[in-house]
Type-5 uracil-DNA glycosylase
Amino acid sequence: MPTTLRAAAALFCNFWEVPTTPSKLVADPVGDPASAAPTAARLAELDRLITRCTACPRLVSWREEVAEVKRAAFRDEEYWGRPVPGFGPPDAAIGIVGLAPAAHGGNRTGRIFTGDRSGDVLFQALYDVGLASQPEAHHLDDGLELFRTRITAPVHCAPPANKPTPEERDTCRPWLVRELDLLRPTLRAVVVLGAFGWQALLPVLADAVWEVPRPRPKFGHEAHAQLRATDGGAPLHLLGCYHVSQQNTFTGKLTPAMLRGVLERAKELAGVR
Ligand code: SF4
């Protein structure tokens, strides 16, 4: 975008800040999630804003470098190379919160958990318990649908070594806060994949309408906490599940039966049949 046009836009939209790190792939950057996220009136609008985010210089550089260099097996593909929004319908009763997109998974395909081994395990289990239309996820146009379920992450860009910094996690937080706000009318249970997602999600829930007990509930596989809603609405059930990473699934720390068990429990608690 020409500098003059961006400057003019900034006069009308205070979140159109010039990004710290210029992006080669995002033509109309959003530089401040805290200002931009509350402006989204619908999930689809939020998702579009997220894909334009350039707030974290290190992650912008990394996601675009990965998209340019590519893995040999995908060298003929065009990588997404931008932030990856949540996936699933706006009337979701069950949320699934992971960590961040994978460099050659979501960062390649543009959909969370799509095109990587972790996603293979997750989507097979979602299909087995009736929450997905098919057991596989390959690319944005593969026809996959989720039923009453939305998958998202506390960090929307692929981080080096799968490790976002605390600052990057906090910068990305407003996107998840707004996503939970928009899902609030129907959301009844959240399955958190792994300890990082659990730690990242608790303050988001506390910022929203749910009371996080003190001491804070600890992460563990099949951990369960019921969070009272301060708006007088339905409580939220928080469920822990080991992450679907290869480190856990290849070693048998997380088996398909264990994953299905947590998803079935989430269905039951959320009243999804
Ligand atoms: S991690 Fe989140 S806040 Fe940072 S650039 Fe990506 S979408 Fe924006």
Remarks:
- The chain has one domain: 3-270.
